[in-house]
Design goal:
Distance between the termini: 19 Å
Helix content: 25-40%
Largest sheet: 6 strands, mixed
Radius of gyration: 20 Å
Order of helices and strands: EEEEHEEEEHHEEE
Number of strands: 11
């Protein structure tokens, strides 16, 4: 009898992990850190792969906080580094979420959003192209679907299409029950309803 593959289970903690990175030669806090990232709730190989990915993200954030503390100024408030994940889709095959990374100090702040979509039987991340039917021109399909979702006027359609070709990145996305959410290169989100994706693989089947 073939061995049954265990499906990973993705979860997000109820509360973030918080700590402070301090200046090397000063007792006061330099960077206040808050991290809320997913973890895999099981012990399968797929769970371990997913957990390894998020452990590395936590370690990278800790290094970033130390670097920021080293160069932090003596302003009235500590710098802030926050990573917060939100689950957006989960079924027996796929799980998807996005993570907002926020950094601020006394002079400026930056925010970045990234999406992660997992094949739960293998614990591997899914490139967006794997969710389309074979030989689909993914970038062109996304641009056309985004145009259908935005519904620009005929006069603006060409300009919008040119801007979408530049802005869309097939590597930055996440899923919701009703739409594919694209994250543009300038960090904006663009929902594309599945009904506008004629070559979308509705079965969500991928090669293991």
């Amino acid at each position: 009898m073939p061995r049954q593959r265990t499906t990973a289970r993705l979860a997000i903690p109820d509360a973030p992990q918080t700590y402070c990175a301090k200046r090397k030669k000063a007792p006061d806090d330099a960077v206040a850190v808050s991290v809320l990232l997913p973890h895999a709730a099981g012990k399968s190989r797929a769970d371990k792969r997913i957990d390894a990915y998020y452990r590395k993200q936590r370690a990278d954030l800790a290094k970033l906080a130390k670097q920021a503390a080293r160069y932090a100024d003596d302003g009235p408030t500590p710098h802030t580094l926050r990573a917060s994940a939100t689950a957006t889709y989960h079924d027996d095959q796929l799980a998807s979420s996005f993570t907002d990374l926020h950094y601020s100090n006394n002079a400026y702040h930056t925010e970045t959003r990234n999406g992660d979509t997992w094949h739960l039987k293998t614990g591997r991340q899914l490139p967006l192209k794997t969710l389309f039917k074979w030989h689909t021109p993914v970038k062109r399909t996304l641009v056309n679907a985004a145009l259908d979702s935005l519904k620009p006027t005929d006069a603006n359609r060409s300009a919008v299409k040119r801007s979408l070709k530049t802005a869309l990145s097939p590597k930055r996305y996440y899923l919701t029950p009703t739409a594919l959410i694209l994250i543009t290169k300038n960090n904006k989100t663009l929902p594309v309803a599945y009904e506008h994706l004629p070559r979308w693989a509705h079965s969500m089947s991928v090669k293991e």
